[in-house]
């Protein structure tokens, strides 16, 4: 048994660190090139900015759902890199790359195959986690790695590492830490059973985790109180569970009218078009149809991304010479040729119809892909339990069987908790973050069925069988990875921004409106930035946390967004009102479509606004999806404006 443990430890030490480095660096380059920030991400970025720019603290000065170290990590990179998005990008990309590298290391240990580990890691990357979920992408594989490390060598140092990792995950986001803690406890129980050793190890595990948590606990107690921290988290969790269904399964929508086989139409060429000022929406749509400009995406102001389906010189020449088009990008205006920088896969698909072949498109549609993957992720833990039961019936040595079962059970526990509490609506937004641990568990399940211990007399046959299975698995996973990445790269939307321009945009302070998740808010951002002072706060009645970051203004009342009824209890609303009384909040923005929800959930705050603010005007702020009076602007009573913003005829308070 000692020889087996030494052999296992040697296998751990033989990890090909050159490939580990390649995976990490490659992930960094890829994720930096494709980096983008969504609306939800600014919920954290704007809170972190509140810490850096105003010296405010979570739970004490503004409400927070339990992202303690997440906020302070973002605040640290903002303090280091400046009031821009470059620091956040470095943090997110670094955590992503570390998480996928840990995934690769675990897959390599499971499969004992470098090609398979690389390909399966590529599959987990292709699922597409969102950058604001960097904590999940990093901590879930880290938790699995630390659990398996302890199972390979049950030393005190490995137990301490597991406890430190658990506590750190908890303080980044409390539920992450709880999931890893459950997996760790199951691992200890599986290895040590109900012996005295288990009691000692679980006591040491909890003690180290508490000791690591002491600085955070002391900080919270001094700055606002641990009870207040718990109260805000519980309130948020209760509201969130009511807002999103924990046990709702995704729907599969089958199109019975679709053929058995189909060939996708050729994807268009990515181009940018800036329309002339004053062009109406109906006129723009007509021109889009005339010039075959498909899949419009607002980039900001009057500029739109499109896919140009007809790239003939005649059509391109008519496009660039049209009086309604002010400028274009990715088009050579001298030769009237599209300067395509499409991914290689998209170029191949354009000219090779076989690569665009779709089997059962009514079933295997992009809309159903997420639902099918969700069902697969729900089934994998059940398969893990069956494999553990099956292994218990094999003629292994007791020690090997016990350790393998403990490893599997710890990962099954982690994945079950993730499936139940994380993998819920909206599924498309969440599925990428949970992919790494479930991919690891799925690979472990397959490996347990393929890499079966055999009698010495059958060793040569087993090696031959594994060689054949290995080739087939590499081919199967390779084609699967190619198919996923083919679809991903051909539907990424716009062409990735070149390195230099990407870094310049991320380093801009205040952040460039070109980085807005949706260009529809660029007019509102400009007005808020130009018509308030640096010390002023803003308030919005709907979920738009990116406004505060791009306008370089703080959010008022301790609420980065009024959404989902979070912290709408009377005691919390009273705190919002008290803070509004103390702060300089010259402007309040209301989205009229969602104002009814705000009035229903935050009656006390709405009464305060009606008493202390007046309607200054209504506007669309250039949002093509809003009506001309889609947004209402309130200004504080008895605070005169000194200017008028000409574009929207609204008051300025600079």
From TrEMBL:
PROSITE patterns in the record: PROKAR_LIPOPROTEIN
Bilayer-crossing regions: 17-37, 89-108, 114-132, 153-172, 178-199, 204-222, 369-392, 404-423, 429-452, 464-485
Keywords: Membrane, Transmembrane, Transmembrane helix
This protein's record includes keyword DNA-binding: no
Transmembrane keyword on record: yes
Name used for this protein in its record: Glycosyltransferase RgtA/B/C/D-like domain-containing protein
